[in-house]
């Protein structure tokens, strides 16, 4: 049975990933991972694109078109498809993910820790400060994996996005935050891969030079997509809207009405 970890490095643009994630690039050079550039949907904003990544629908289709649209997800989503297939789901993520798929509005006293939830997400650890240390969140993910062995895990750290808003998308502060995430990936991914997880590392959106994002510029919309434990066709197109369907295919889960990835796919041992 294939298990999948989806890592969404919030606000990490493509060029910063390729220049700052040394471990990931080392895997690519060794033929142990593949990387490609994706263009995110619009608006290039966090809450709309969390919903896109996890439902396969564009913001203009699912209706979460602003960070200020605060409500539960409507329609099908990746967590729900996994639960319907009898699988265990988990998330170590920003509280907006909890609001979309667990409970809205988020109550930090009630909703921070979720264990044996009856909804779309089985287990979760959620945070609300953008500067919540990425190192702590990776440890939260480790706890979810060791304690609950989820079939699908979303890991969503925020510090790169926070640094971009503070310093700009072409700043030392932004690139150093990306380098920290690269080092955390180097510390944690080998153990998760050894447990048999297939891993996707991507981003919701990029970051503009002025420290913001929403529009269609390459700095705001070009994001990385790293694949570990599987391989897509070299020329296969992969829209951001097909990531949820790709994960369903990897896990042999019925994607329901979510767009399915139909391109070539090789599962690696």
Description:
The protein is of the alpha/beta class and 269 residues long. The protein has helices spanning 14-20, 22-29, 46-55, 59-62, 78-84, 95-101, 108-111, 134-148, 159-167, 172-194, 218-221, 243-251; strands spanning 3-8, 34-39, 89-94, 113-114, 123-127, 152-155, 197-202, 222-228, 230-232, 265-267. The strands form 2 sheets. It has an 8-stranded mixed sheet with strand order 2-8-7-1-6-3-5-4, with helices on both faces. Strands 9-10 form a two-stranded antiparallel sheet. The N and C termini lie close together (12 Å). The model has no long low-confidence stretch (mean pLDDT 97).
Gyration radius, in Å: 17 Å
Main sheet?
8 strands, mixed
Helix-residue proportion: 25-40%
Helix vs. strand class: alpha/beta
Q: Can you list the strand order of the major beta sheet?
A: 2-8-7-1-6-3-5-4
Percent of residues in beta strands? 15-25%
Descriptive tags:
two-stranded antiparallel ribbon, eight-stranded mixed β-sheet, 12 helices, 269 residues, single chain, alpha/beta, globular
